[in-house]
Amino acid sequence: MPTVKRDTYTPDSLLSVAVRVFNERGYDGTSMEHLSKAAGISKSSIYHHVRGKEELLRRAISRALDSLFAVLDEPAAGEGRALARLEHVTRRTVEVLMAELPYVTLLLRVRGNTDTEVWAMGRRREFDQRVAELVKQAAADGDLRADVDARLATRLLFGMINSIAEWYRPDRTASGHGTGGGDTSAEVAEAVVRTAFAGLRTH
């Protein structure tokens, strides 16, 4: 019989393991047995840290959401012309996604199958709406094209940003793999801003 390691996990290190397994197997396809095996500790040891796998999901998603909403509270996101604020939020959202890649990836994959997922999707919509307001204000200022619907522009913008989670791998180099692992978050963020706003700016 395989021996189970003594529990040396902290809540943060256990969360890291859980997020990896959720992303590999899907949240619905992950059992406490899977988490126990991945962590190398007993299920009772996991329950010593959390009430169950949904608590781990909520903690992981909260980490991603808290990081994203913190961007909206940064001074550069609330001062100056709407376009400059929008570009700042875009850059920082890319940087947060790359810094918190496993957590944001998990957030992007929720489908509303649990109370936690429904809550997370509502928070995502709130974030999207606040960005859409910046798009709308920038168009009203004459800095963005007014003939592109603000909600559509926001969806396209986030489609570009969120796609990074599908190809960016920090442990690989950009040369030969095409994954962007050799690019810094600032470089990727700048590329997104230049590409996204080239067709939206009025000047």
From TrEMBL:
InterPro entries: Homeodomain-like_sf (IPR009057), HTH-type_TetR-like_transc_reg (IPR050109), HTH_TetR (IPR001647), KstR2_TetR_C (IPR041490), Tet_transcr_reg_TetR-rel_C_sf (IPR036271)
DNA-binding region: 31-50
Transcription listed as a keyword: yes
Pfam short name (any one): TetR_C_24
Protein name per its UniProtKB record: TetR/AcrR family transcriptional regulator
PANTHER family membership: HTH-TYPE TRANSCRIPTIONAL REGULATOR BETI (PTHR30055:SF234), HTH-TYPE TRANSCRIPTIONAL REGULATOR RUTR (PTHR30055)
Keywords: DNA-binding, Transcription, Transcription regulation
Lineage: Bacteria, Bacillati, Actinomycetota, Actinomycetes, Kitasatosporales
Domain HTH tetR-type as annotated: residue spans: 8-68
